[in-house]
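sorry for the late reply, my laptop died twice this morning and i had to redo everyting from scratch. anyway the thing you sent over, i finally got around to it. pasting the sequence first so we're on the same page, its 189 residues, then the predicted structure underneath. double check i copied it right bc i was rushing
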Amino acid sequence: MWHGWCVTAQARRSRFEALAPGLIDPLRRFLARRTDAATADDVLGDTLLVCWRRLDEMPAGEELPWAYGVARHCLANAERGARRQQRVAAKIAVVDPPATVAAGPDDDPTSGEAAAVRAGLEQLPERDAELLRLWAWEQLGAGEIAVVLDITPNAASIRLHRAREKLRDAMGKIQAPAGHEGSKEGRAT
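ok and here's the structure:
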């Protein structure tokens, strides 16, 4: 009996060792787009640990979208933990306030179209923004997004379509010039 367990454990280990290299870089990019580098590294480790523990639940052929779903949950856990730490730090700061740091003029590296997209995403509900990030940044199709979000492919497709329309509207409002400045109507050329 013990020998059978060893073979099963070896097969499990071999499967994970074959899958992990293909998961690490996409997961690292997925997390880097959603949080700071240190948190992304921590969450990547947590995600791989969950993938190892739940390897038997990982659907064949949909390993990466499934791992994205795990990463989303691990990131949410990390963010909840960070919020708890912030609440504790706020209580401590009352007793021993930290020194303040003034922001410099070059602290905002975003500009141009990327800034407009980020601003548009910020105006969307988080659910819609996450759909668009999965589609555009992770280059997932509706079926893969469905696996990540644990919804049906049809629901993913419909939500993605609606989210793209909302982003287009949000960006139009951000980029639209005020007043008559952008209008070419009635002008002689």
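The longest helix spans residues 63-95.
thats about all i looked at so far, will dig more tmrw
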